Amino acid sequence: MASVQQPYAHAPISILEYASPMLVAEETNPVGRLRYFEVSIFNMEVRWFVQDNADHPYFHDAWAQEQHVLIKGYSQMSVLSTVCERFPRSQGFVVTQIREAHTSN
Question: Domain spans of the chain?
Answer without folding.
Answer: 21-100
